């Protein structure tokens, strides 16, 4: 695992260059350009707000803001995993070079979507002010939650991208699993609506539920997030990163041939 991070650090210039290129290419030829960074999550929010505020009313104060707090980190996670699944198998042009650091490609996908997430934060703060939700001192815990989500997402993308080189059906399976994962994560509803017998299982057994509820605690509930689940997830992410690094290292020599 340390070797993997060391190589990413050594090739940090390449990583930064690829992230910049990806951000520029994503909206190249678009009239609105980087405004889509704000428009995409806003449109998602409007659809779900219409559904759950008008047609299926949620009895929750400032529901749209509550939902948006959980939606932004989910978009970062789902976009990274969905795009990351094929980030190696689709880059034959790079992987067939004499020597190219393959571990940079999954990191590029996660870092690019992290940039979009960070760029969307002013929209989150602005919406909070619109609903009278002023940021409190609890935002000091925000970087910790972001770091834990980054570690978990990066480990998962490394595993999926390495396996997808051989098992190409995996990227299609992942996209369907992400849809199911979205609805079992408390983004559109508070955890209090989950039946008591299943609440602990659906929250503690779901890494993204831990992350989303932590953001909700910071921005919506104005309290310190539950630290025990976060520490547990941090330990799990480190273990997952170790397993991902081992798997990636063993399969890296096969990437060019399999692609």
Instruction: Give helix and strand order, one letter per element, not per position.
Output: HHHHHHHHHHHH
Low-confidence segments, given as residue ranges, are: none
Total helices: the number is 12
Overall mean pLDDT: 81
The domain tally reads 1
Provide the gyration radius in Å. Answer: 19 Å
Strand content: under 5%
State the secondary-structure class: mainly alpha
Helix content: over 70%
Largest sheet: none
Q: Which descriptor suits the 3D outline?
A: globular
Give the terminus-to-terminus CA distance.
Answer: 24 Å
Total number of strands: 0
What do you see in this structure?
It is a single chain. The protein starts with a helix and ends with a helix. It has helices at 2-10, 12-26, 36-55, 63-84, 92-95, 104-130, 142-164, 170-183, 196-204, 207-219, 227-251, 255-258. It has twelve helices and no strands. It has one domain. The longest helix is centred in the middle third of the chain and has 27 residues, at 104-130. The mean pLDDT is 81. With 259 residues, it is an all-alpha fold. Helix 3 (36-55) packs across helix 4 (63-84), helix 4 packs antiparallel against helix 6 (104-130) and helix 4 (63-84) packs antiparallel against helix 10 (207-219).
Outline the fold blueprint.
Elements: H1 2-10, H2 12-26, H3 36-55, H4 63-84, H5 92-95, H6 104-130, H7 142-164, H8 170-183, H9 196-204, H10 207-219, H11 227-251, H12 255-258
Helix pairs in contact: 2-6, 3-4, 4-6, 4-7, 4-8, 4-10, 6-7, 7-10, 7-11
Short description:
With about 260 residues, this protein is an all-alpha fold.
